[in-house]
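Inputs:
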Amino acid sequence: MSDWTDLFIKNGFVVALLATGIIVYVSSLISERLLNKKIPGSAIAIFAGLGLAYIGGIVTGGSNGIADVVGLSGFTILGGAMLRDFTIVSTAMGVSFEVVKKSGLVGFLSLPIGVIVSFVSGAAIAVAMGYTDAKSIATIGAGACTFIVGPVTGGAVGASSEVITISIAAGVFKSILVTVGTPLVAKSIGLDNPQTAMVYGGTVGTTSGVAAGLAATDPRLVPYGAMTATFYTGFGCLLCPSLLYLLVTLFYN
Amino acid sequence: MLVYGVAILAGCFIIGQLVGQLLGRALNIDANIGGVGFGMLLLILVQQWMHKRAWLTPDVDSGINFWNKMYIPVIVAMSSIQNVKAAFSSGLVAILAGVIPTVICFLLVPVISKISKAKKQIES
């Protein structure tokens, strides 16, 4: 038994490749045989990933999902920010510059709208749930943007670590909901063309959620949505601790 | 050579990250602003430029396309390392602050893209 764990730990990245291949294969079988392809295999695989992350968290008590299970630590490399961003950049292969030029402006105009709407509605929820100090309200509002904007804002304005944790959790929730929800709402919000995908990426933000949600909906739309979404977190980190925080302090101390 | 494709992709990625980092520093915030987006724009331009000169051989192309196809497996792996448990145990504020703004943003998407389409019709 320890031979196996040793082998798995030493070759973590390769183990993660194998395990991911198995997850994708089983998911495509479920999609084809059980669900008649009504839900794409990639959507099931991403959802299965989230489910495994939950189980990993319960079993190990750690914060890295399945990667905390002994021998599966290689998932932090395969699923980490570096390879995520690297593969997202590669999806730009085959993207038409003309389309980006044509719909780029409205895509980027949707960024401030997305950040402000998320912040304000998140802050309103914080107020409704009984928070009365500007630091906590702004941090939870920022968490409603992405799970990076929340802690960056919380750190900048000096919020309590409990509130920062809540803001991260809110951002992770958003990311999960975007992942699972995008294929479900795609049709009703007209998400079937590059331009709407750019608007969607700019409005919804959270890169991991947008990337996974679009992958589950229509992989051809991924580069367009990812391109605007990737500016969202930076934009949120710019607006939330500064302008939007000052706005909150006008109403709360 | 296949590795040229991989290297071109890596170059675009690194330059994009650098631009995003410099932009973040210029605006005095501790975050990378659009590094991935700049990398993508660069790759789009480089591939057009290479295509015109017939330098984009199938070999080079497959070096980039391999990673393009690895994208979904990477996203699956990424999903499986999220802190899903903490998200579910952080209480009602976190759930509401995650869910309600997301739903509002979903609803806004068709509105914003309609506005832009209407504008284009007026212009043309």
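The mean pLDDT of chain B is 87. Flag for discussion at group meeting.
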